[in-house]
Write a structure and sequence with these properties.
Distance between the termini: 40 Å
Number of helices: 16
CATH architecture: Orthogonal Bundle
Oligomer: single chain
Strand content: under 5%
Number of domains: 1
CATH superfamily: Farnesyl Diphosphate Synthase
Strand order of the largest sheet: 1-2
CATH topology: Farnesyl Diphosphate Synthase
Order of helices and strands: HHHHEEHHHHHHHHHHHH
Structural class: mainly alpha
CATH class: Mainly Alpha
Radius of gyration: 19 Å
Amino acid sequence: MTKPERASLQDYLAERVQAIDGVLDRWVPEESIEPASIHKAMRYSLFAGGKRIRPILAIAAADSISDAASGVEHAAATLELVHTYSLIHDDLPALDNDDLRRGRPTCHKVFGEAIAILAGDALLTLSFEVLSRIEHVSAAQKIRLVEELARAGGTVGGMIGGQVNDLEGERKNATPALLDSIHRAKTGALLRASARVGAIYAGASEEQLEAISRYGEHIGLAFQIIDDILDVQAPSEALGKTAGKDEAQQKITFPAVYGLERSREMAEEERVAAHAALRMFDDRADRLREIADFIVQRKT
């Protein structure tokens, strides 16, 4: 008996985006529910057409471990809640001061700074409510998932710590050490956690979790390298955000430290290392391998 033909990566991603959006729509209050202004702002940013890479990573990681990871899309959706909160806050005038996100005006440009701050706060808070209420996993697994998400977004090696280093690093000498401290935390931590959340949900062994973690670290770095390259080379219309801001704000980026050619080589090295990290897995992890390729080859 022959195996059924696998869907293309494009179809796989589209199906997962639809599933994740359905979960998000269920958990985020409707715009008509009071206070309506905050729910409008939350939904405006959340449903602005993101790629959903982080929750898709969680689902693909879970599928590489087990066929019985029912309901993983709910745990995965919390990663998009946290990611969107971080984008809302990152765009604020006090931080990156951007007017464009995902191809349309940023949250604070539409709803004002106060509501934008609160919308980010609300999405972050909701992520932990969702984790506390998911089914199909034990209480011990829920605690591990909460810890994973909280640490990835925190100050020590987490997203907020990376954002602080990024903010304080503006106009400083662009060194490899400072670059690494920014991006392994600011971008890499949540991407690494995305893969780990899926693996933990599916009941991964410590050996499997370690391999998935290494994979997550490599794709996290690759993702940021490509982001930095696209900020230099792609127009705002393609990116969905203001191009060239890194250079204008004298941010510490991979092209600033290594140049464009070496940065592309480094992204490819991280892609290869991500594949190598999955050596212990069979073809169940092929979607993770394809996502690593997609991250490095993307144009937006």
